[in-house]
Amino acid sequence: MNLKKRLILANALTVIIPMIITALIALAVLFVFGKLSISDISFKNYQRLTEIKFELINSEASILQRKPEVVEEESFQKHLQEQLAGINGELIIIKQEEVIFASRNLSKIDVAKCLEAGNDKGRSEPVLIGEVSYSVELIDLRFEDGALGTVLLLAPIDRSVANLTNFLVLIGVLFVLTFMLSNIAVSYQFSRSIIKPLHNLQRAAAEISRGNLDHPIVEEGDQEIRALCRDLELMRVKLQDSVYTQLKYEDNRKMLISSISHDLKTPVTSIKGYVEGILDGIANTPDKRERYLKTISFKAHQVDQMIDDLLLYAKLDLNQIPFDFERTDIEEYLKLCLLESEPELESSHIQISFHNELHQKQQYVLLDRERMKRVIMNILDNSRKYMNKDAGEIKILLRDTATSLIIELRDNGSGISERDLPHIFDRFYRSDAARSKGSGLGLAIAKQIIEGHEGKIWAKSHGEEGTSIMISLSKS
């Protein structure tokens, strides 16, 4: 439920609940009074009470519209008596504490009770005269001679009619009380449904401010508050991922510095050693100096290659190298790559072959030809470095699925252990036994380039029978 609907419902309940409770209690009172015959509280009695009040008001208006002396006139007294006769009412006129007219014989005590009831405006109980209960209206007059006078209008009223007035007052008070109580209860429940989720949000925010990003934010409350909780939870998760990524980058940076230091130190140390050998006169023959200089040149080229690989990986990692994609016949492209690599592989006694298993003769894919060539060369160079067979062999198999092309480069070299297999595409990762072979960035660069083509690359180990590097690319 959203806040708008909840607010409308809360406002409606604060009115509906008191009305229902008041109606039920009123019905219960009517039922009990009816069964016990205490009084007849009915619409008929209410109508009778209204008629009586109306006649009294009319009679009072008749007196007030005339001069005070007119009440002493017999004709006017008769007129008032006739007005009250319709309700069996009585009329008493008093001047200077003496009764100058009474529509019926009343004792001084009865007159005194009527005066007391008339002066007590807040009194709700009727005056009992004989066996009849009367409602009293009192009108004060001042005659021209300065004498004070009083007109008492008496209207007969049943006990049940009087009880009806009390009943209506009771119902009104009951409605006000139930309205107040239901308003408090509904407001408490309404505020609780908002305050509790907000309190939990405040606690979660405090945990985040203290650096605890593992405290989840639970979705609860109304629709708007749940949306707020969902957005804050998403923010927490992203912040947690950001912190994790930052820590990972920090670890990678440390590992990068350590790996660069280690990888560059080995060839640089060799270069220094050979240079010192030449300077110290150890290379004292032309052949020995030539061998030393060739070694120095090779090691310098190795350092240069490491630096180039590192710069290329950094640019790929930061997406700073744009890809130039071309629609390319994949079979023709792979054959050109093989022709370029074949001489170097043959010099290492490695035979390379190509196998086309495509369902159609020609299949096209979007490639950055130069970047993809770097991938193929890196994989072939890796296979050459780790070849441990006298008759080395590399097979390139090309096949397809409904939506993608699969390139498999399989060798019969030393294979990859199950422990190393998940990590071979990580930068600078190499098994300890082969620590000195290359920069450790070849397969990491290949992975970055393949992902730049929105493809996938993975490895399969065949144990002692070699390794397969698998590349999946979307068809064009």
Q: What does this protein structure show overall?
A:
With 476 residues, the chain is α+β, with helices and mostly antiparallel strands. The chain folds into 3 domains: 173 residues, 2-Layer Sandwich (Beta-Lactamase); 95 residues, Signal transduction histidine kinase, dimerisation/phosphotransfer (DHp) domain (Helix Hairpins, Orthogonal Bundle), CATH 1.10.287.130; 149 residues, Heat Shock Protein 90, CATH 3.30.565. 56% of the residues lie in helices and 17% in strands. The chain has a 5-stranded antiparallel β-sheet. β11 and β12 form a beta hairpin. The longest helix is centred in the middle third of the chain and has 57 residues. The protein is rod-shaped. About 3% of the residues have low confidence.
Query: Average pLDDT across residues?
Result: 79
Helix content: 55-70%
Q: Determine the number of helices (DSSP H or I, runs of at least 4 residues).
A: 10
Query: What is the domain total for the residues?
Result: 3
The CATH topology of the largest domain, please?
Beta-Lactamase
Based on secondary structure, the structural category is alpha+beta
Q: Could you spell the SSE succession in H and E letters?
A: HHHEEHEEEHHHEHEEHEEHEE
Within the largest sheet, what's the order of strands? 2-1-5-4-3
- CA radius of gyration is 54 Å
Instruction: Give the CA-CA distance, first to last residue.
Output: 49 Å
Which sheet architecture does the biggest sheet show?
5 strands, antiparallel
Number of strands: 12
Q: Please identify, by name, the CATH architecture of the largest domain.
A: 2-Layer Sandwich
Model regions low in confidence, pLDDT < 50 over at least 5 residues: 37-43, 432-436
CATH level 1 class label of the largest domain: Alpha Beta
| Residues in β-strands, percent | 15-25%
